[in-house]
Structure formats: structure tokens, C-alpha cells
Amino acid sequence: MKVIIEGEKREVKTVWMEDGIVKLIDQRKLPDKYDLFNARSVEEVGFAIEDMVVRGAPAIGATAAYGMAQASLKNRDLEEAAHILRDTRPTAHDLFHAIDHMLKELKEGKDPVVAADLYADDITERCRKIGINGNEVIKDGDRILTHCNAGALATVDYGTALAPMRSAHESGKEIFIWVDETRPRLQGACLTSWELVGEGIPHAIVADNAAGYYMKDGQVNLCIVGADRIAANGDVANKIGTYSKAVIAKENGIPFYVAAPVSTFDFKLAEGDMIPIEERDPQEVLVFRGKRIAPLQAEARNPAFDVTPAKYITGYITEKGVLAAEELIILSQ
Ligand code: MRU
Question: Which of residues 83, 98, 125 is at a domain's end?
Fold first, then answer.
């Protein structure tokens, strides 16, 4: 991804490994500061995922792949390492997919770093293809709404929902992006906007509650979001607030697409109600940038994801093409 760091344009990736250290862009500090987080043990990799130094389903997967490689280099017990990593965040399917993949590769005696690099390169290539395929649903002049951050930061490069937008922009289409700010962690305001600034793609951040206003007002003609886990019937778990955007989009006749690689699909789960939903610390709702914003007596709830039923989803932008819910079965073959 192209980013602007201290006024200078650079090409960076979200996660990689160097001298046995898992290197991550510290997403907790963006957009104020571009900083790297160095994870030197599987415990530190687990912390990075849990504390959202790195987040977004495919990025969590690639980070876990590097965590497994690092554990292997340090002669750690691989099942224990897998357990530490699996125990971080429950919703994103890529995490479990990547750990299972690495366990298999390492047990077959593959070189740990080569195997993790191949995993990260493979997910990057899948996202690049999602960009090309998704560009087909974008018309010149489209005003596209997205939720959370499903960009390069959430993958390794390109992104899922943002990949088609990058592709459309590069192919000369004039597009405008509505970026939901995405309370409580503000992935839209802090991360998606940072990526779009780097790419020079016109956009505006809106409060989450404003999305319906713009949809009803005819100012949104397409929605594209990412996914954390997609069940066999096409129900999608994604960042909290996705469901309400999808319902409002359908009510207003706006196409609603979900972009995701095969690693995000969980064909073991028949439907979305079976997807485990992470409940995060209520402090993320009660405290804003270190300052309590609610009465001391107030309690809060903080589900990180919701499930959008397949009936609200126009299509799934994957590396294998843009598919309808009934066609998803071909991805499991
Ligand atoms: O809690 P997060 O920031 O990890 O949630 C991320 C999302 O919900 C993304 O939309 C999803 O992982 C898709 S990433 C390409």
C-alpha cells in the first residue's frame, strides 16, 4: 500500500518477518504516528492480535502464520503456540485457517519462514484478484459506502473491500468513498481514511449514524464491506454496524457487496447464527482516548461484530469471481 510517512510517500506491508521478529505496523497509533511493533515471542504475537496492534481477518491470519513460524524457530511446542494464538480473538475465520495451515506445513517439515511468507504472499495475491474482480461492480462516478477498515491494513496488502476501490481508482474511474467512522475503535476514521489519503482517493468520514441519511438522500449508490467469517449459507459476520447498513441499503435499493478471500469462509458452519461473536472490553465504549465519557455508574456492552443475513447481500467479491450466495459452494471445492 502507498502511505505518506512524515511527508514522504512509501510502499509498505502490514506484517512481515525479519531476523526472527514479527514486524507489524502498530495500528493502535495510526493516523497520529507510523510506528512498528516488534513481536519477539508467540505470547507477544498473541498480545498484538488481542490488543489490536494488528486487526482485520486476513491480517490476523498472516500474523498468526508468522507467529507459528517464530514458535517453530524457537523450538516451542507447536500445539501450545497454536493454542495461545487461537485464544486471542474468536470471530475471524482467517486466524484458525492460518494456524491449521501452518501446523500442517510445519509437521511436514517445511521451512517455517518460507511457509509463513508463502501464506502472506498468497493472501496478498488473493486480495489483488479481489480488487480486479470487484472493479467490475464499480461504475465511473460511483459513491461507495464502506464500514470499518477492510483495507491493506486489514490484510497484508490491497485489502478486501478497499481492493476494488484501489483498482477502480487506478483504472481511471472517478469514485468517492463514504467512510463510516466505526465506533468504538474508529477503524474507519483512523485507518481507512489513512489508506485512502495515501492512495489519493476522494472520501469523507461520516458518523456511523449518518450512513442511512446519505443512503436515503441518494448520495450512496454502492456499498462494499469486508468480512470476518462467512457461513456456508452466505451469512456474514463483520464489524458491528454492518447489519444495519445492509438493511438500510436494501430498503433504499442500493447494492450491498461483501469482499473476502476463501480463507474467510467457514463451510463447517451452516449459518451465521453459529459464528462466535467477540465481546470486547466495555471500556472501549465508556472511555475515549483516555477520558471517561459516561457517568461512573454507567455500564456498557461492546459486541465487536454482528451477522448480516445473506438475503441482504447482493454478491460476494472473491478471488474466484463475484458470486451469489447460491454459488458460494464452489469455493469449498
Ligand atoms: O475488529 P477488527 O478491526 O479486527 O474488525 C475488522 C473488520 O470487521 C473487517 O471488516 C474485516 O476483518 C474484514 S478485513 C479485510
Answer: 125
Cell of 116: 509463513
Query: Cell 500445539 identifies what position?
Result: 79
The CATH number that applies at residue 45 is: 1.20.120.420
Residues 117 and 195 in one domain: no
Residues 50 and 40: their CA atoms lie apart, in Å, by 16
- DSSP 8-state assignment for residue 303: B
Mean pLDDT of the 323-328 span: 98
pLDDT at 10 over 90: no
Domain count, the chain: 2
Q: What is the pLDDT of residue 3?
A: 83
Q: Strand, helix or coil at 106?
A: helix
Contact 70, 42 (CB under 8 A): yes
Q: What is the pLDDT of residues 56-84, one digit of tens each?
A: 999 999 999 999 999 999 999 999 999 99
Q: Which residues approach ligand 1 with their CB closer than 6 A?
A: 55-58, 92, 148, 150, 154-155, 159-160, 187, 226-228, 238-239, 304
Domain with 22, as residue range(s), is: 2-125
Q: Is the pTM of this model over 0.70?
A: yes
- Ligand 1 centroid distance, CA of 151 (Å): 9
Helix (H, G, I), strand (E, B) or coil at 190: helix
Of 72, 101, 125, the domain-final residue:
125
| pLDDT, mean of residues 272-283 | 98
Query: Residue 244 in contact with residue 250, Cβ under 8 Å?
Result: no
To the query of whether residue 228 is one of the catalytic residues in this protein, the response is yes
Cα(288) to ligand 1 centroid in Å equals 20
